[in-house]
Amino acid sequence: MQEIGKKPADGVRLALLNNRLQGVARKMANTLLRTGRSGVLNIARDFSCAIVTANCELAATAESLPIHVLSGPDLMARAMKTFHPDLKRGDAFLHNSPYHGCSHPADHTLLVPVIDGQGVHRFTVVAKAHQADCGNSQPTTYMGAARDVYEEGALIFPAVRVQSNYRDNDDIIRMCRMRIRVPDQWWGDYLAMSGAARIGERELLALGEEIGWDSLEAHTREFFDYSEQRMISAIRKMPAGRTSHSSRHDPFPGTPPDGIEVTARVHVDPEAAVIEVDLRDNPDCLPCGLNLSEACARTSAMIGVFNSLDPTVPKNAGAFRRLRIHLREGCIVGIPRHPTSCSVATTNLADRVANSVQAAMADLGDGLGLAECGAVIPPAVGVISGKLPGSGAPFVNQVFLGCTGGAGAPAADAWQTICHVGNAGLCFQDSVELDELRQPIMVYERRFVPDTEGAGRSRGAHSIFVEFGPVGCDVEIGYGSDGAINAAKGVRGGLSGAAGRQSKVSRNGQVEALPGCALVAVLDGERIRSHSCGGGGYGSPLERDPNAVLRDVAEGWISPARAEDVYKVCIDESGAFDTERTAARRKGM
Amino acid sequence: MRFGVDTGGTFTDLIVEDDGGELHMFKAATTPADPIRGVLDALKVAADGFGVTVKDLLGRSESFIYGTTHAINAIITGNVAKTAFVTTVGHPDVLTLREGGRTDPFDFTVPYPEPYVPRSLTFEAPGRIRADGSVQTPFDDAAMVAAIEAMKHKKVEAVAVCLLWSIVNPEHELRVGELLDRRLPNVPYTLSHRLNPTLREYRRASSSCIDASLKPMMAAYMERLTRDLRDNGLTGRALVVTSQGGVMDAAEVALKPIHLLNSGPSMAPISGRYFAEIDEGSDTAIIADTGGTTYDISLVSRGRIPWTRETWIGQPFRGHMTGFASVDVKSVGAGGGSIAWVDDGGMLHVGPKSAGAVPGPVCYGKGGTLPTVTDAAVVLGYIDPAFFLGGAITLDTDKARAAIEAHVAEPLGRSVEEAALAIIEVVTENMVQAIVDITVNQGIDPSRAVLVGGGGAAGINSVLIARRLDSPRLLIPEVGAALSAAGALMSDLTQSFHATRFCETRNFDFAAANDLLDKLKAQCRVFIAEQAASVVSSAIQISIEARYPEQVWEINVPLSLDHFAGPEDVAALERAFHQAHEEIFAISDAASSVEIVGWSAAAICRLHDQTTGTLAATAVDGPHERERQAYFPGYGHLVTQVRRFEAMKPGETVEGPAIIESAVTSVVLHPGSSAVRRPSGSLSISPGA
């Protein structure tokens, strides 16, 4: 272990190396974002690019979805090395096995070992992208009800050599094309991943040649030490304590009737400069698609921690030395055994874990942690499939018409469009025009809903309402909206955000409530109504600055009645702040 | 005689092109409260220089070309009109949602950003047009009139209208315009389909709101500028630089002020293109302008200056995307004033915090205490403390040393000189990464591009940047310190016309495409005819915004044809797209068809015969230092020859280590590099290794 308080060798080389490696990862990510074909990749930014060392330690990531990247690249690189001791330049490996380090089967990943001129494996570059379809038994990549991986149906690739000598193994490409519903889209995304990974390889080869491989490795080790030092400083600023927090997932097909409760125990030890998260005391895996992969279990715990720390601490193997994540084999939020299904591992229970960890951190003291973020996936962010009017060609695509759910933070109101805690708001929100052009749908309405925020000193996100439906054809819409019963909780006196809900409007205007998780047939002219979850508030609403409440009323975020009932801020008839009555109401509590 | 003026943050630069085609450079302090004052001051400096009155000088002008940051400053400081936003009923949160996205995923200290127009000034217009242009719900005059009355009640000063699918069927937007004409006759408004006919409602709405919010004040500003210039004797044409790197008449731009957002920085690549071509015969260049606080990078790719609609005011995802075509300029927080600091893990950072103009670097002696890049350059001997801005300010080397010692050298355990080098090295890397980012996005290989350094501080580390990028050549034009003002003189009068129509090459609709191109070309020809008197030559450039099926981000591809006669022309379009995609992203999908979303035609009118770009010779005044000690990485202190920029003869070569300085710049030649003076006056530097 690194001696605490020791200065790293060279603060200048550190800055330069950090910049270079980040630059390579960013270059990979820019390429992937702009060349990907499926909406889930290029709109939701549901992809990641990372560099891991030859020892399978995470060295650098581009700005990527947190749930993709903190742990996973390390585990996948290790699987690649174990299965293929004979790595050669020009190799690339296709990996989506949740039993070998991938997040879930829809996240196709390309791993390229970076081999120097002497044939030595120096780094591995990782490009991962969520696919529009991965060959599941139903046209969705989120098979929440699948009993096991067989019912789920995805083709599983445990680090399979898909390129040798820079050439595709066409057998594997053909297998994918025979099994994936939108083969051209998949092929486009595969090309994009391949382009990104090869750019990363090329850049790292140039970097190694330029500064020498041994000194590059030495710099990387120094950077890990530096990152660990930053982590130590950050943890030293926190109070010591043990807390735990539980978060309950709604009942879904395949879960017990009261859903699944997840508990995270958190121990912050500033003296040892270590944070421990224990997820072992949780239920066993269930015969459904909600089980977490090891990568997602580990990462979701880490997200909760890093959401509560100085954001400038680098996220790499050096900083991770100060984390202890305890997982149990066979646990629903632990290490799953084949053939347990992990189809929905990146969102639902993973979010419950991350939310539990950050809420537990908030219990340690004011100024720490975060409230809970809202759950997903509402129908407005569902997968739409059907046949195009006219050509009759099949289409499958995930739309991103509206999800919010941001959590109130110690010193700032929520980022509205956080989407879910594992996404961190990186997801784009679709343009109505673009969606109406890309598929035969019409978006009738999209607006934030007043009074749905988790009230607090810092308020959580509002729900967003979206009404949409097919035009000129029938479609199916698949979604899995957790949070209809268990809304995002506030912390430190903050209130819960609004629950999510959804319904269908028939052609004659009849409204029918829809379940939380379903594949719904929607006929031409029918409409889906989708309400995303709000986010939890941080701190008591009575501590909210009355001027901020006034602004929220003026801008239509909350009603005057809610200002008075919940925030105890009174507004007179002219819209001005009534100081006396407010003081009385707030004192009266 | 022609005048190019660029109002920057600190200086107002004026370049005068005399009738022989030689350039003369003048500077005056920018006067932020009244920038036109600074322009007139610069003209006075020039008039004094020529020994004439301002009236005589302006009386000889063919044209006066003005670049200004006034519009963007008005937005940043919130000095724009109270603007109402009219949107389609059911979709009030277009501006609040933007297009989603966020940076810094673990940073929860930043709240969700405010919309450009508040929700309380957002009004929902009745009616709905479908994607195919048909009417789903008809417009309703009475409901709209009620909304306009509410605007009147709220005393709005400008109105922006952006309705869904107005780019396909503008009927409802036009009706809103008619009602506004009648009910709010003195309030200017912007209709999105006229201003910026592009797909994606947020981009159109954002550009319309920005445009409308600038109208009252920019109309007044342009009117005053023109009047003041006329009163001072201007007889030629008053033109303004646009975000797209062209120029427009001042009166015209007042009607579409969004064109002014990037006025100024958009000119740097015009200059850069010119010098890369005449000095190095290269059509590909990276233009980097080093200021006090920011480092602005733009590109020239095979003679073209790439543009983008994704320009942000403020930080990406936290500010407002303009959605309006602009020269692609990337700006990062790195410059002469960037502050160096060491964090609690012992890592050195430089920027993005800047000492700004006040208090400025420590060596200015105006109260700055935190060491900056400029302080490092002084400590290293790169800048002559007695000759900064030609001696206007004497720099305090001791103070700079002390600050670097305390804040960098001590925490890093290095000597002051090595600490100063480290500051230069880190800021260099920050600049390099910014260049890498924009070149990746535009598909340019820096090792095949000429690096053009502009801005007074460019010379400090440009050799190091060129080495890191493997650039074969670094060019420091003699007018480099006023690159934008010089660019203004080289720019063409341009007007772009856009249309949105979805078209796939697999099922190509020849009649529709040709009809659309004919209309765009006709618009261009009308514009060109209107300019007839002052135009030397003209051209029409067709380009498309296109993508592979299922992609969502279009790329801009210029076409060499303007009519589709048969399948071979469509195949040519596909080839051009594949090639552009391959260049930008290193991959292409030759078997795939191509989707075209947007069509553009630009009318380009050349206003002048090519300028020389050469500064008129000036006498070197007074005695000059011939050598001094300067500190170089890997060498330590070296006796370094010092040359005056303007005294070097064309074709003359100087080998590093050397410093070539003038009143406005200081160019450091590291050991191993060498510079040759080009006939244009530029320093052409071989960076060495």
UniProtKB/TrEMBL annotation, chain A:
Signal peptide: none annotated. Transmembrane segments: none annotated. InterPro entries: Hydantoinase_B, Oxoprolinase-like. GO terms for cellular component: cytosol. GO terms for biological process: glutathione metabolic process. It holds the Pfam family Hydantoinase_B. GO terms for molecular function: 5-oxoprolinase (ATP-hydrolyzing) activity. This is N-methylhydantoinase B. It comes from Roseiarcus fermentans.
UniProtKB/TrEMBL annotation, chain B:
Residues 204-495 form the Hydantoinase A/oxoprolinase domain. Residues 540-675 form the Acetophenone carboxylase-like C-terminal domain. Residues 2-182 form the Hydantoinase/oxoprolinase N-terminal domain. PANTHER family: 5-OXOPROLINASE RELATED, HYPOTHETICAL 5-OXOPROLINASE (EUROFUNG)-RELATED. One of its GO terms (molecular function) is 5-oxoprolinase (ATP-hydrolyzing) activity. This is N-methylhydantoinase A. One of its GO terms (biological process) is glutathione metabolic process. GO terms for cellular component: cytosol.
